[in-house]
Amino acid sequence: MGKLSGITVVDLTQFLPGPMMTVMMADQGAEVIKVEPAAGDPAREQAPFDSYGGAEHSVWFANLNRGKQSVTLDLKSEEGKAHLRELCRRADVFVEGFRPGVMARLGFDYEAVKALKPDIVYCSISAFGQEGALAHHPAHDMAVQAMAGFLSVNDGPDGAPVVPGVASSDMAAGLTALSAVLMALVGRDRTGEGAYIDCAMFDSLLPWCVHTAGSAIAGGPSPKSAEQRSLGGAGFYQVYETKDGKHVVLGGREIKFARNLLHALGRGDLLPFAEAPAGQQGELIDFLRTTFATRTCDEWVSWFADKDVAFSPVLDFREALDELHIAERQLWVESEGGGHHIAPSIRFAGDSWTPGPVPGLGEANRECLS
């Protein structure tokens, strides 16, 4: 039995933040009833596809919706609303990801659901929250990152922002919503009272800047990447190109790592630059850039094998998933009947985990709606 066995979740979310939150609950044994429109969650149609249990599913959809039960409801019809009301009456958690105001128009805002289940834990996930000047502004992840300041330091060598490689505000919202729901469930066990959670992608992402945006948080100017230790201004937190056109990184600024590497390279005289403020390490960065260009990526991996330095090659996803470390920790697994999953990052000692089946659209209608 998982840690959340006995908890029932009614999940109206689609795409990424909500499904990421609820799959973490399903992975721990919660009964998650995924309510979809007749057309299904749009992620179902997102290529590429893999064979899970003999059926083709989107890899995205499968990894965020395994172990759930899918029901299809038309929430604009009286029949669909009646079925959803019945689901609410036996739910512990209700999660929705519509734009603010939609659930009230459908008749399933917090007060309406609370009337059906007084101790419900109700979580709304949106881009900017249920209230405020931006509440009704349409946005997906990159727009939220842009509005929160993060894209300004996700820049290339020319200083122009580039498309981020991680949907950080989506993922931050999923993690924040999960934490809030679990806190509310703990509180409900103590007091018998449910809770309403207004989880915004914007609000969830903003605290992630405290180690880089200190000057702005203190009321001063915005940081510039080239002047920040963690954003490109330090020699030992930097990306370098190798002789074969690949890349490696130095990912630890502690002076012990700088001492170990610079002495191994015969340039201990550059150590003061490693201790200098970010933005004043140009001579060190130039030396390291020239040095890394003298060998291939594989040659550097071999050279660093006996060095105590925070160093890594830059791998693509295929290379990363094929790493021995991934296999040893069973982080990339094949489900029974085929189909690949990224294993949950939350796993408890002594507990075994296997991927739950990927739900076909509406396949639980009879079971869940009878």
From TrEMBL:
Taken from the record, one Pfam family name reads: CoA_transf_3
List the EC numbers from the record. Answer: 2.8.3.-
Which SUPFAM superfamilies does the record cross-reference, listed alphabetically? CoA-transferase family III (CaiB/BaiF)
Name the InterPro entries for this protein.
CoA-transferase_III, CoA-Trfase_fam_III, CoA-Trfase_III_dom3_sf, CoA-Trfase_III_dom_1_sf
Coiled-coil boundaries? none
Reading the lineage from the top rank, the first entry is: Bacteria
**Under which main EC class is this enzyme filed?**
transferase
Q: Name one GO molecular function term.
A: transferase activity
Keywords from UniProt, A to Z, are: Transferase
The name this protein goes by in its record: CoA transferase
